[in-house]
Amino acid sequence: MPWRRATFKDQTVWVEVGADGQPKADGGRVPIRYQDRPGAKIYRAGAGRVDVDDSAPIETLADGAAADESPAANKAPAKKAAGRGSGFGKAGTRTAAQAALAADAAQRQLAKLEGRAVIAFSDGACRGNPGPAGSGAYVVLPDGGAWEAAMHLGRATNNVAELTAIGLVLDILEEADVGHDEPVAIFSDSSYANGVLVKNWKAKANQALIAELKERLQSWTKLEVVWVAGHAGIDGNERADELANRGVDGETKRRRVKRR
Q1: Residue 80 has pLDDT above 80, yes or no
Q2: What is the pLDDT of residues 34-70, one digit of tens each?
Q3: Rama region for 209: left / alpha / beta (φ>0; ψ in -120 to 50; rest)
Q4: What span, in angstroms and rounded, lies between the C-alpha atoms of 115 and 186?
Q5: Residue 182: alpha-carbon gap to chain centroid
Q6: Do 90 and 68 meet the contact criterion of CB atoms below 8 Å apart?
Q7: Residue 23 near residue 52, CB atoms below 8 Å
Q8: pLDDT digits (tens, 9 = 90+) for 35-45
């Protein structure tokens, strides 16, 4: 049975494919598995939520076993996505009520930090996964000054774009002469970035990039990476998303701006 590596909820999975290398959808759902070993459980996920790695080879894997439960119910607790169970829903399918809850929670977090810490937002964007990719960062200093940056990455995965965006924030901190003992909060809507950088998820890919980021982050003694719901009307997150998409379009820049 042919399978191909893909991403589902920021995790690496294998999706069953046809001879053309595309997922075999039935009723809008596709078979996926989290492991390539014999007997691995096979789930069914919404086709629109599974991103195929176009660079991955088509593999013939040993037979798996059909699972009675949904992928979300069977995910290991350590890989539980940030924000799950928060009532915020998921970007793209979030209701207006969920978006309002997410925005309110973020604003309460920001109110506690404003004027007392550097507040940064990072985001990555990718058209196709992998595909043309970009990273964006928006940073507000305690004095009210702000910086923003966009970076074109060429062809990359969404996870690489998200991680690179956090590195872009660190570049701005260096250029803005932010002291390494000053409080900094980096808000990212990537549960993957939060997992590998904060929760010590074991990463199969991007290990060098993750190790470099961890080392850089540790040089700031009061810095934290915080998960925030994406596309919920949170100004800084929306701006970082705009900048990331400019990066996808080929733009690379970094500049000081008036606070939005």
Answers
A1: no
A2: 888 888 889 888 877 788 887 888 888 888 888 754 4
A3: alpha
A4: 15
A5: 25
A6: no
A7: yes
A8: 888 888 898 88
- SS3 assignment for the chain: CEEEEEEECCEEEEEEECCCCCECCECCEEEEECCCCCCCEEEEEEHHHEEECCCCCCEECCCCEECCCCHHHHCCHHHCCCCCCCCCCCCCCCCHHHHHHHHHHHHHHHHHHCCCCEEEEEEEEECCCCEEEEEEEEEECCCCCEEEEEEEEEEECHHHHHHHHHHHHHHHHHHCCCCCCCCEEEEECCHHHHHHHCCCCCCCCCHHHHHHHHHHHHCCCCEEEEECCCCCCCHHHHHHHHHHHHHHCCCCEEEEECCC
pTM reported for the whole predicted model: 0.67
For residues 203 and 94, what is the distance between their CA atoms, to the nearest angstrom?
Answer: 28
